[in-house]
Amino acid sequence: MAAQQAETVVYAHQTPVVEASTRRPGRTNKTQLKLFEAAMDIMSEGGPTATTVEDIAERAGVSKGTVYYNFGSKKTMIDQLLQYGAKLLLAEMTVASDHEDPREALRSALYAAIIYLREHPGFARLWVSELWRAGADWSPTTDLIRADIMRFIRELISRLATRYAVRTDRSIEGVSLIIFGAVFMLSMDETRHGAERTPEESAELAMLTIDGYIQA
After folding, report:
1. Distances (CA, A) of 182 to 9, 135, 145, 188
2. Is the pTM of this model over 0.90?
3. Buried-most residue among 2, 47, 139, 167 (CB within 10 A)?
């Protein structure tokens, strides 16, 4: 049975400009996707603070007005890019998790996440930079995105008990958090330090926690 599709969330603290589809990115709004890809390329090179609306427009081959229309001003653009990128990430994980075996569903979802972060290193960099902002400058979007992704991972881990004996002395929340962190850190290690791992190897490393959670 396929994992339940991630619910599209409208964040209460902002007026949403983008609504990423829960389908594969190739089927989403082409202009938004092109702008997102351009922004992620630039951020992977110089970081979020060095990225301007002008840079994104030039890289994407569009006017500044197109950037403003799709992702708002520089002040709101980071929030919108985070939200959009997270929806694409969850869409990829949702499609990949369509397996009857819950362990394979989880492994495939993590593999899809690793591939996505490999193809969009700017998104991982943007996410981490937002997490480490000072409290006054911190966007509540990061909390909401984390909640969305964690909810999805928890649902997949909960399904393990339908086929496997799992450890009852380990909380699903804790296991989900380890998996969440592992995927992002494996991605950052590859981007920052040039670690040479295949996506399959990274997925299996992340799954070590799950194999310890499942009782032999």
Report:
1. 25, 24, 16, 10
2. no
3. 139
